[in-house]
Amino acid sequence: MPDNASKSPYIWGEDDFIGGAVALDFVNSAPLRRKAERAEDRLDGYMELMRWSVAAGSLFDREVDALRDMAQDNAEEVGQIMEQARLLRKGIKAIISACAEGHAPDSDSIAVVNVWHMEAQAAQTLVWSDKGPKWCWKEGTSLARPLWPVAQSVMDLIFQADHDRLRSCGNDRCHWLFLDSSKAGRRRWCSMHSCGNRAKAARYHRRCKSKQAEAG
User: Which of 98, 108, 122, 186 gives a 20 to 30 Å CA spacing to 151?
Assistant: First the structure.
């Protein structure tokens, strides 16, 4: 299976899932602008796509082995899935950014998301348990499985989320997307632990320099 096996896998942590929706976290998996040393795409192969999906809670651990076996036997399809994954990620970013800015997205992005949404709908199956009915994903049937929850998530954002709460991080070197669920609706940063703290430190540094200049 084509994958970057020589590299140590990226360790997905809480700071990688601050978007408030699977689709937003998927967009934020793209190459970072805020750290030059991490400018490469962290979803650099199908195994990494599965790792991300498990960490995001959109893929069960029990599905990984079956998907890995399928990927090993279908190298060409794996390449196509990864290409489509990046196109989907780009399309979602364009659509969510358009929603946040209050204008219509481009037709190419809409077409990409439509294709994946239709596939995701076809991949759902109705199950009934003691807790009642629910929709579940068909497990172990397709290498596209990690992308189905992403496609469903973006549709939920488009039709159910308050578009005024769809935001981009205020750090000009970041621009990660997130759904502002704060009570006041004034969230500016993807995370206070990263961009928020850097902004506070920068303001403090500017104040110190200003006071030194006035004193000098």
Answer: 186
